[in-house]
Amino acid sequence: MTTTAAPPMADASSLYEELVEFPDNFLLIDLCGEHDRNLAEIERQMGVQIMRRGNQLSVIGEEHSAKQTAGVLRALYQRLEAGRPVEHADVDRELRMGNGGEDESEDISGDQLEMFRGGKVEIKTRKKLVEPRTDAQRAYVLSLFENELAFGIGPAGTGKTYLAVAVGVTMFIEGHVDRIILSRPAVEAGEKLGYLPGDMKDKVDPYMQPLYDALNDFLPSKQVAKLIEEKRIEIAPLAFMRGRTLANAFVVLDEAQNATSMQMKMFLTRLGEGSRMVVTGDRSQIDLPRGVTSGLHDAERLLQSIPKISFNYFTSKDVVRHPLVAAIIEAYEADG
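Structure (tokenized):
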């Protein structure tokens, strides 16, 4: 039985009980989590009470919530049966997606696009399996495989860049592209590049660090270093893209709100045969000088009607970092 305070319950006459049985008690322990923390989180978000009775969990609440919670519990148990762990992120994803485990999970790849429609989406990389945690993230991942040019627009912490890099690594591993190119505008946000110590690489690398971090999440660090040395992975400021044609590459432009209109046009026209481009940005974090129009804003305005270019939008509800991040974003949005 969970140890947290019971959530607000409906009138006793309207309560409904759903019993869910789990054959393997050891897996049930993993499902409940340490000190029943997984059950406590499910109770909190779903507004139900969950009680353990032997190898059964009793879910008590309004009928719709109880049945939906039972579906979440079954989906998490099926994950354990498949030999995969259930961590906080997995509980969060099942609660957000609300599919109750009814759909069969399919691994996603460029060759399997038709196979997973309506099911769960999973991106396989060398080091981990990446799964979208919200409906907006799922739609975004699908669009990355379906479109040669995709935009991901929304606040920090919604997985725009992380998921794009994951898809890029997957397409690279499967041989759909020959290179991964990750870029950002090196726009100063409080610190002058010239004041930082070191050569140009030393000055630029701090701006690129989030891209390095994402890559190292999906590929062994030695492999990342080797691929960078071989120029099969490039991480470079946006200015370095000028004059190039990027063929057979998966190209990500991060922090695109800090690209000027001319830089955005320059970048988008680098698209070559066999390549895919992803542009991510947050319209609330523009660091360009006053009076300079964001290239992301212009791209939205000019390209919305062009077929095979997708625009995917995220809100604070899609933030998958600490819950306080979503609350902070909402506070700033309300103020402004």
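The longest helix spans residues 63-81. The CA atoms of residues 164 and 278 lie 7 Å apart.
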